Amino acid sequence: MEWETIEVAREDHVAIVSFNRPEALNALSTQMAKDLINVLGYLEEKKDVWAAVLTGGKSRAFCVGADLKERKNMDTEQMKRQRALFVKAFKTVMNFPKPLIAAVHGYALGGGFEFALGCDFIIADETAVFGLPEVTLAIIPGGGGTQNLPRIIGKHRAKELIFTGRRISAPEAAAWGIVNRVVPEGELEKTYRELMKEITQNGPIALQQAKRAINFGVEVELDTGMAFEAECYNVCLTTEDRNEGLRAFNEKRKPVYKGC
């Protein structure tokens, strides 16, 4: 399948999802939001896709946030409809049930930073720049920035970044715990391919259940989280992949998982 503003490539059990508006530094347009929702919905249903990477493709930016040129001629009702669509796109990223990693090259600003924050974690190269500049335009982050960023780095540091609208480099983002790892320019693609190969050698159902357990568990008190973890574990317990994992361990060979 093809989409107007998103490119999707497949490598074994991995989908590489790339924003494809390089002429606009991958600014988030109405069409790009629609395409992203449709792409992730399509990949969610593909049983042979076990994990995905979100990238900026060939652009010198990951995503610079909302396309303000598109927005300048909108009336209030059109803007409200677009905002609802954008919120749906951000939630689609956050709720994607399979591992979804952001690989950031260049600018990740506003909604672009929020898309990255909505992924399971971020890797970046040395060119990456992160920021939530919305207050400089008299608005606030509206794609989860005020919610996801404090959960990652604490509310005080999040307030500093959001209140100032300041941009930070990849090394600073890594030091603050926003980015998992920073690699030299030109090595990002190699790095995420190696990382996704490492992830997808594992049981795909187990990956999804581990993600569910973590995402739900961090929002509740410990006993409830432990009970939910047990439910997620039990989902894995009755799968053929679990039996294959045990057989492979005892036969001292690499398991062959099928996602069932």
From TrEMBL:
Example GO molecular function: 3-hydroxyacyl-CoA dehydratase activity
> Any keyword Transmembrane?
no
InterPro entries attached here?
Answer: ClpP/crotonase-like_dom_sf, Enoyl-CoA_hyd/isom_CS, Enoyl-CoA_hydra/iso, Enoyl-CoA_hydra_C
E.C. number? 4.2.1.150
Per UniProt, the keywords (alphabetical) are: Lyase
Q: Which domain of life is it from?
A: Bacteria
Q: Which family does it belong to?
A: Belongs to the enoyl-CoA hydratase/isomerase family.
PROSITE patterns with a match to the protein in the record:
ENOYL_COA_HYDRATASE (PS00166)
GO BP field: fatty acid beta-oxidation
Pathway annotation from the record: Lipid metabolism; butanoate metabolism
Reaction catalysed?
a short-chain (3S)-3-hydroxyacyl-CoA = a short-chain (2E)-enoyl-CoA + H2O
According to its UniProt record, this protein's enzyme class is lyase
Protein name per its UniProtKB record: short-chain-enoyl-CoA hydratase
> Which organism does this record belong to?
Calderihabitans maritimus
What does the record note on quaternary structure? Homotetramer.
